[in-house]
Design brief:
Length: 447
């Protein structure tokens, strides 16, 4: 049976996340946005409240939540502050490669530290000259003795300024592209690791973003998470599991924008009437709700696929670009409903809009998601309908069936180029429309 309802445990989790969101995240959001600062105490409280790191498996100290639970929690936190949601969830992005790897040593060494002691871990594929083209990374990993030496710069790394550990992707040879990429767990305190200044941003100012410079950083062999080539696969598998969560960020932000817009529309009067009585405003609200609901369905489907052991890659990509682009439309409409006040810093829409803008960029831009989906459609998608030149489109058809629906015996031949259908025992000599030779015609009837 298809069931869209949440379980009692999921409803309880949603309730806890809502309380945390409204009591801890919301009051902090605008203050720290203005300061352009990540309040670390929110992350500590999130860990204590079981809102952060809960997707670490139970045997390593976590609550063992799946992605569906992750999406439920994330929507609630992002509804209050997308920047803090990014900061909280970034730990999952950082440790996900460890969780899905088969490296038991690193799981035992790092996951309990994160779950129980609130250690933070960031995730680094991007570099100053490379973001979308992950296989084009330049950060070098050179085998030396019983370990590797890392040299290079990672950029845009969320939480790098506050992280204890770093999941670093580097290549043994840039010319090898995908096949050269490895992954390592690096500790912030190791010699040669430097973190740059916090990068000033348009939005998500409550999340920390900085570069990481690695200079002759020695990583013991045991901290190699994935060897050459396997690192690329690990990064892609990680993104397939984290993209539904980015979609959940967008759902949360869009839901709040919609709720604020409903509230404002009920209160604001123009021309002697409340603006919620105007159909132009009502249609905007209806479309906002449609976008929030459809986005959530896609996000949860991607999360459910991952939790069910399926490959969530395609649903995760569709969900990411659908939910994040829909959220921008919702935010834009919400700002319009607020009129001039929407454009000020005194109302919540302005910050939500700036925060939401990032969702179509990080963890694979909208363009990259479209490339993934289009690549799959063109190579692996299985069509239900027959190939085009076998479809019985009978323009100007003679009687193919008698009155009882019995098929006629007269063969029909279809031109593979213009679609003209010829009836007769044999194909025509040439197509009377496009003149191609008749031997290219395909018999499409009787089937
Ligand atoms: C606030 C913030 C936080 C981030 N956090 C992290 C993090 O924690 N870890 C991390 O590793 N990275 C992080 N990133 C980096 C982020 O993932 C990249 O910015 C993103 O992948 C895009 O890469 P880029 O900025 O280099 O753009 P580019 O790859 O240079 O792309 C520029 C534009 O060209 C488009 N484009 C590129 N190639 C194609 C193509 N083949 N066809 C069509 N269009 C194309 C892109 O979609 C984009 O619109 C973060 C970025 C930001 C802004």
């Amino acid at each position: 049976m298809l069931d869209f309802s949440l379980s009692p445990e999921q409803l309880d989790l949603q309730k806890r996340a809502r309380t945390f969101s409204k009591e801890v995240v919301l009051p902090a959001a605008w203050h720290y946005n203005e300061k352009d600062e990540l309040p670390l105490w929110v992350l500590k409280k999130a860990n204590e409240a079981g809102i952060m790191n809960s997707d670490i498996p139970k045997e390593y100290g976590g609550a063992g939540y799946g992605l569906v639970e992750g999406a439920i929690v994330t929507e609630e936190i992002a509804a209050a502050c997308p920047g803090l949601a990014t900061s909280i969830f970034d730990n999952s992005l950082g440790f996900e490669p460890i969780v899905i790897s088969d490296n038991e040593h690193l799981k035992k060494k790092y996951l309990p530290e994160i779950a129980k002691n609130g250690k933070r871990i960031c995730f680094a594929t991007s570099e100053p000259t490379m973001g979308s083209d992950v296989a084009g990374m330049q950060c070098r990993a050179e085998k030396k003795g019983d370990g590797y030496i890392l040299n290079g710069t990672k950029f845009w790394i969320t939480n790098s300024g506050v992280a204890d550990y770093m999941t670093i992707f580097a290549t043994v040879d840039p010319d090898k592209k995908h096949d050269g990429i490895c992954a390592f767990i690096v500790e912030k305190e190791w010699d040669g690791v430097r973190v740059g200044r916090h990068i000033p941003k348009l939005g998500q100012r409550t999340s920390n973003t900085a570069g990481i410079h690695l200079e002759n950083v020695r990583v013991p062999e045991e901290n190699m998470l994935a060897g050459p080539g396997k690192g690329f696969v690990l990064a892609m598998k990680t993104f397939s599991r984290t993209r539904p969560i980015i979609g959940a960020f967008a759902v949360g932000a869009a839901r709040s924008a919609m709720e604020y817009a409903i509230d404002y529309a009920k209160k604001r009067k123009t021309f002697g009437s409340r603006i919620n009585t105007y159909q132009a405003i009502q249609f905007k609200l209806a479309e906002m709700y449609q976008r929030v609901e459809t986005s959530r369905l896609l996000v949860l489907k991607g999360a459910w696929e991952a939790d069910s052991g399926m490959d969530p890659t395609i649903t995760a990509s569709i969900g990411k670009f659908y939910a994040t682009e829909s959220a921008m439309e919702v935010l834009n409409d919400a700002l319009q409903i607020f009129g001039g006040y929407g454009y000020t810093k005194m109302f919540p829409i302005e910050k939500l809009l700036r925060d939401t803008r990032l969702f179509t960029i990080y963890e694979g831009t909208s363009e990259i998601q479209r490339m993934i989906v289009a690549g799959w459609l063109l190579s692996a998608y299985t069509s239900v309908m027959p190939p085009l030149d076998e479809v019985p489109v009978m323009v100007g058809a003679e009687a193919l069936f008698d009155q009882d629906g019995n098929p006629s015996d007269t063969p029909a031949w279809r031109c593979p180029l213009c679609g003209y259908v010829h009836y007769g025992e044999d194909h025509p000599d040439e197509c009377p429309y496009c003149f191609i030779k008749g031997k290219g015609f395909k018999q499409v009837w009787p089937r």
